[in-house]
Every structure is written in structure tokens, then in C-alpha cells.
Amino acid sequence: MSRSRYVWAVGVVAAMALASGAHADDKVTVGFVTHAQGNPFIQQIVDGAQAAADDLGVTLQVAQKSGGDPEAQLRAVQNFASSGVAGVATSVPGESMAKGLNELVASGVPIVQYNLLATSVKAAYVGEKSVESGRILGKMIVAKMGGPAAKGTVIIGNCFPGFPVLENRAKGVEESLKAAPGLKVLGPFDVKVSAVENYNRWEQLYAANPDAAAMIGLCAPDVASLGKLNAANGDKFLAGGYDMTEENLAAIKGGHAYVTLGQSAFVQGYLPVALLVNAIKTKQPTPVGFFNSGTQIVTADSVDMGNGLPKITFDEAQKLAADPKATAAYYKVWTKTLAGDGLTANIKPIAAESE
Q: Could you tell me if 301 and 37 are in contact, meaning their C-beta atoms sit under 8 angstroms apart?
């Protein structure tokens, strides 16, 4: 860490450590548990968590699980706690994790949820406003198809049916699509999360519905899969979905997909670690509430990064997607707002996540 970066980190941690009298250079270790191991979007979250660990002078240990098995993730969290880490951030792909996580919270282990949540967990959650995010995506698709007069078949895919955040996205998308009564909406269908299965599922759906006017994915692999499928079939349908991965942005640049919504992967990694450090230093549990990571809206013609971040071009967004260090530097405008009371200034009730 450079001296200038170290001085900034000292200031932030000191502001968060008043109650305990701890020093910014006290080395602590935090755990970070993810689902969908190997997914590029999840790696962007991990990169954000590592940036926070670097800035705040803590050690980050990461455990990644394939798919979305809640029992496996709970075991990973419990293993971290047993090993003596000072706190754990985890995505929560199932309500069955809640009891075990709440037991850890009650025992004094700070816990933060991110990306996927269980509303009964007594801890902070960092993620997008899921229903509103779906509404935004649905509005973008309807507008591109011609507004209220739009007609045709729209297919929706969900890589993890039953996950509340993704079900909420679907709800928002479907709500916005109703603005065009002439649209026939099919799904959501299970399109799986692994890249190979995801593409195969979309290919099968298109083969069964070759007249589809639009195809909308609710998960990170979808835009890349839909772009590839569209390119193979003469770019006959409108494609949209989620996350600013290199693959998804390439599909948009190539003209094979129209829009992708980011959910601020960097924030979803960085803020949970910052909240854990605050809890560790102050010896207080993380606040029970929702921290909105923000929504990013990206087409080939415009990029809205949200969170008060500087405006960038599409080409610059592509470069950031491929460069964790450049992303961390770009987000300094946002990370500096976390000093002092800024860390918890924007907390909302958990229910606000799905408004």
C-alpha cells in the first residue's frame, strides 16, 4: 500500500473505531463467502471486497461455492467463525441459512449479507433494489420495442428460481411489460447459472419460440448467452439483462444485445467489508437494514454508473470491467463518502429492498 493510500485508510478506519479505541493498523481477518464460483460478476464482487480489505488494512479470506447451495455456504460461514475470523460477509441463497447466521450474530460474530438475502437474518444487507431494478429493465425493453404499442413475444429467464432477489426482479420486469398490452410474456423459465447450461437453455427456448421479439435474463450469464444466440440467428430479437461483465459488455458492443443493468458489483464487495470492519472496531453488531448498492444502466450509447460516480464512456466501462485496480481507483469518489457517519448514513429498513 502506498503511503498516500495508507494515510487515507487510517482516516477512514479511525473514524469507524471510536467506541473501541482500536487503531487502524490492528490487523484483523474477515471471511467472505460467495455462491456461483467462477462467475465473472461474482469475481467482480470479490475484487471489491479485496479493495476494501486493502484500503482498511485487514486480511480477506474468500470461500467460493459452486451453484447456490445454502447449506454449503452456511458451513463455510461457520467454518470461518470457528477458525477465528473477526467477521463474515456472505451471500444468502436460502432462508435455511437464517437460523445459523442469527446464532453467530447472537454469539458476537459480525455478519453482513450481500447480493442474495434472507430477510429474517438480523444483520445488514448490501444489494440492489430488486423490484425497482426489474422495473427499469422492463421499461428499457418496452421503450426499445416501441412503447405501449409494442407487440410480440417476450421470454424471461431466471437462473435461480425461488431466490427472492431474482423473483423480485422478475416481478418488476413483468410489471413494466404490462405497459404494452400487445406483448405476450412467457416465463420466467429456469435457465441455470453455469455458462454452458445457460446458453443451452436459452437456445432451447428460442428454438421453441422462433418468433420471440425479446428475451430478458435476470442473471449475470444471460446477456452473454443471449448475445451469442442472437448473433447465430441474424440478430432477430432484442436482448437485455444484468451485470457489467466483460462478456456482457462485449455482446452489447457487438450489437447482439441491447441493455445490461449493473448492480454495482464493486459496492457489493466493498461495503460489506467496510461494515464488518466498523462492527469489529466498535464491538457492535452490524445494523439490521438495507444498503442500496445502486443500479447502473448500460447500452452501447449511454452509461449511467450511479452512486455519484464520474461519467464514463462505454469503452471506458469495458476497460473497468477487465481491470480491478482501475475499478478501485475509479470508485475512490464513492469510497471516500464512507468516512465517519457516511458509512451508515443511507441505511433503510430491509423491506425497502423490494419496494
A: no
Q: How many residues does the chain have?
A: 355
- The span from the CA of 210 to the CA of 353, in Å, is 36
CB-count exposure of residue 156 (10 Å: 0-12, 13-18, 19+) = buried
Q: Which residues pair with 184 in a beta bridge?
A: 153
Q: Write phi, then psi, for 5 (nearest 5 degrees).
A: -70, -40
Question: Distance between CA atoms of 75 and 97, rounded to whole angstroms?
Answer: 9
CA distance 199 to 206: 11
Distance between terminal CA atoms of the chain?
40
Task: Copy the grid coordinates of residue 327.
Answer: 475499478
Read off the pTM: 0.92
Count CB-CB contacts under 10 A for residue 182.
11
For residue 126, give Cα distances in angstroms to 138, 187, 262, 284: 23, 28, 14, 18
Distance CA 109, CA 285 (A): 8
List the grid coordinates of 107. 454469539
Question: How is domain 130-262 classified at the CATH fold level?
Answer: Rossmann fold (3.40.50)
- Please give the angle made by the CA atoms of 29, 31 and 34, to the nearest 5 degrees: 155
Give the model's pLDDT for residue 19: 29
Please report, for the chain, the start and end positions of each structural domain, with discontinuous segments joined by +: 3-128+264-294+324-345, 130-262
Distance of CA 90 to the CA centre of its chain: 12
CB 181 within 8 A of CB 210: no
Contact, 303 vs 317, CB < 8 A?
Answer: yes
Asked whether the domain spanning 130-262 has the same topology as the one spanning 3-128+264-294+324-345, the reply is yes
pLDDT digits (tens, 9 = 90+) for 18-73: 223 334 445 899 999 999 999 999 999 999 999 999 999 999 999 999 999 999 99
- Where does 3-128+264-294+324-345 sit in CATH, by number? 3.40.50.2300
Q: ∠ CA(43), CA(301), CA(335), 5° rounding?
A: 40
Closest by CA position to 66, among listed 97, 35, 21, 25:
35
Below-50 pLDDT ranges, the chain:
1-25
